[in-house]
Design goal:
single chain, 230 residues, mainly alpha
Amino acid sequence: MAAYQACYFWAVPAAGVAVTALVSICSSPIFIALFAAKFLGERLTKKIYLALGLGLIGTSLLVINPQATIAQDWSFFGGVLFALGAGFAYAAYAVGSKAVIQKLPPFTVLACSFSIATLLLSPALLFVNNPINQTINNSLTNIQSWQFQLPFLLYLGIVSTGFAYLIYIQGLKSTKATVAGIAVLLEPLTATCLGIVVFRETLGISGIIGGGLLLGSIALLSFPDSSSKD
């Protein structure tokens, strides 16, 4: 988890938000499928291959912004590599959690993994010296600003991270890691729907098609495997 967060936020300034989200979110199910087949013995059926393909195409159409222009210099490609590293690290976390979830309670797995990640990332607060860090420090000394930010920080920590990962780990107990990895592709679709409802954002034709493909991939996974050649 520490490597995932570090790689993701290193990638954003170099490659941009859209490319980072696209590469990391789309690469993680592929890594999960490979890791699960290698270490968990999960069988990759034709249905999973089809669902994975639909999900990757749908996510690409939903996340990518054709109007975004990024100078493709070496820093851009470095950002893409960090985004791939984020997808790799997330896949390792998902498969590792699946391997131990049968022996340990989901909350224990979550608490231990995030506590270790917190300890590994905490020293970064001591060495970062830039305007953003200065802004954070100023905010911490400003009681009124801190009181305003605290509810959002609590929401991010409790709901968006703690509760979300808890139900994800709980879901891993009763489903394959590969299927759970494909289901996570719904994340950008959920964010898009919230953006439309809350911020009145618009969804183009490519986004509508991408969302349909994503829903189709999840619907495909909901059908039981045939007992035949799959």
